[in-house]
Amino acid sequence: MKETSKTIEVLLQEHRSFTPSDEFRRQANASDPEIYARADADWQGWWASWAEQLTWERKWDRVLDWKPPHAQWFVGGKLNASVQCLDRHVAAGNGARVAYHWEGEPGDARTLTYAQMLDGVARVANGLKSLGIGQGDRVTLYMPMAPELVMAVLACTRIGAIFSVVFAGFSATSLRDRIQDQEAKLVICGDACWRRGKLLDLKIVVDEAVAACPSIEQVLVWRRGAGAESASAGTPRDLEWSALVDPQPALCAPVAMDAEDPLFILYTSGTTGKPKGIVHSHGGYLTVAYATSQLVFDLKPESDVYWCTADVGWITGHSYVIFGPMANGVTQLMYEGAPNHPQPDRFWELIHKYGVTVFYTAPTAIRAFMKWGDEWPAKHDLSSLRLLGSVGEPINPEAWVWYLHHIGGGKCPIVDTWWQTETGGIMITPLPGITTTVPGSATQPFPGIEAKLLDEQGKEVVGPGGGYLVLSRPWPSMLRGLWRDPERYVQTYWSRFPGMYFPADGAKRDQLGNLWVLGRVDDVMNVSGHRLSTMEIESALVDHHAVAEAAVIGVAHELKGQAPVGFVILRAGREPSDALAKELTRHVGEVIGALARPERIIFTPELPKTRSGKIMRRLLRDVAEGKALGDQTTLADSGVLDGLKKEYESREG
Q: Between the CA atoms of 409, 13, 441 and 357, what dihedral angle is there, to the nearest 10 degrees?
């Protein structure tokens, strides 16, 4: 482990920045730095140029109607999402191109072409129509990662139904709440899924959820395994996928949808309060998913095998497993199970087996790969890879250089992307044929996106410095609101800085103009009558050369009202100690002021995060206050909390 740490330190010195090779630049979809200026000069025209590459039933009358905070893009235009992903590729003679190589965790595998996916989508769509599902109806999906999930999504879009995918790991309570909020008529589910060698029963979760959902008329069950047959037996509203879908005709005319019609509802992970039903529309969302996939991932449909490891239950899976890559007609790999089953080299085995060229995953996964050891990727030939990506949270520099060296062979550009469920697509990112990247920075806004930093008073921070990150003009894939909650939409995203979208993240800009996203700023504590942002203290901690990542919470204090407590992950090669804790406390005082000094520093190898990479400060507060731990449905690894509780209690004693 010490040898690995030493190597990482050396790599950090060697890779203070990464410039794409001349060979990569020559073949890149975006290689001209002037692309930013051109997009900025006519940003509405820029987005229209991408929309024009889609297949429209009727072209729009106006590019944009903007009445802050409400935007309508491609007004009057009509199109269908499934046509962008399937029909147009088949019509162009590419029906025989592989759409998905699918691998189940036990090793079963299938390959489906674009023509076969279109056939399946049409059959599912006809099946849904036979159940009375039509335009505007809501359909909830609770399925494992399989091509049938993509078919179900695109079948809904084909007939104009609004789909809502719920991650097939959420509890029955979480599923019930989402079904009730959207008043869905139908649930499409898998009976089971494989995870770390076990066949998990999904249908029993669905049965419990829909028992309290009177809007559900029927449940369509796709059989992944035999694990849940007893749970579904004798339920009158259940329908078998094979019985309903297989006999249907393989032709189904797509419904022309208005560009502003709702495409899907996706609920945020609910780290605080009631989950928000994010609504995305057809035309604008598809435009940004298509454009960002092509430029950020440099997709080459004729030669690339692209793999985004995200589950479709998250926005990354929506935008960069289904709509963006499929609209570009690229071949993808989809995998059902865990990255460390049966061995910690499962991902590297799959990359070699399928010749993956573009790989997009989360920093949480990358840090896990590092812990498991360099020997696992070293066992496999990963030379097919030409581009790597990161999503979900800021990636710490150590993980960045490990990823570059051990997975990318020191040659693959890394696109470190920042965006949200609400933004629909990537907002801040390198362009791999243009950008000189810096470990840990998402670098620049995507062409056509305008991002600014503002101070507490809403004044723009120009040049190097930190502040609140805002998106200062509309973009096509912006959320169109919260499902049946317009007031919360305005209050949550547009009230802090009127006319500008505030994602509740802070960021800093370095001397080179690169943006570094620091994390959420919506946690504020009151220390001796002074309001302090957790983000500000976290930023000061990460500013110390020993710290890789930090989370700060406010805990009750008899004199101050609240006091900051810092949970700190150290950089490779650094060891926890009382002396270092005192040094970090002093450092925060020097950077911000004595008032901000943490009352306690807790060293930890991991932080509790959602599966999409957000730090769950609510659970950290529960640990610090000795409370029973709250809802852990969205927690990626519950084992993290056990170690944190022991460490916190030992430090407190």
A: 0
Average pLDDT of the segment spanning 478-499: 95
Token pair listed for 8:
């990482």
Give 333's pLDDT tier (boundaries 50, 70, 90): very high
Of 139, 124, 142, 270, nearest in space to 204 by CA: 142
Contacts of 562 (CB under 8 A, 6+ apart): 525, 526, 527, 554, 555, 556
CA quadruple 296, 300, 301, 304: dihedral, nearest 10? -90
Structure-model confidence comparison of residues 356 and 589, the more confident one: 356
The tens digit of pLDDT for each residue in 552-610 reads: 988 887 777 788 999 999 987 889 999 999 999 999 888 777 778 999 999 988 888 77
Q: What integer is the mean pLDDT of 379-386?
A: 98
CA distance 207 to 481: 30
Strand stretches in 395-450, DSSP E:
414-416
CB of 407 closer than 8 Å to CB of 416:
no
Residues 81-105: what's their mean pLDDT? 98
Please tell me the distance from the alpha carbon of residue 136 to that of residue 480, in angstroms, as a whole number. Answer: 15
The crossing angle, in degrees rounded to 10, of helices 114-130 and 147-159 is: 60
Is residue 229 predicted with pLDDT exceeding 60? no
* CATH 3.30.300.30 for the 523-652 domain, yes or no: yes
Q: How far apart are CA 516 and CA 510, in angstroms?
A: 8
What's phi and psi for 75, nearest 5 deg? Answer: -65, 125
549 pLDDT more than 50? yes
Pull the structure tokens for residue 319. 């935008």
* Beta bridge partner(s), residue 569: 549
Unique residue bearing structure tokens 């369509």: 220
CA 69 to chain centre: 24
Q: Domain 113-255, what fold?
A: Rossmann fold (3.40.50)
Q: Whose structure tokens read 């007609």?
A: 329
Q: Where are the domains of the chain?
A: 113-255, 523-652
Residues 612, 269: contact at Cβ < 8 Å?
yes
pTM of structure: 0.86
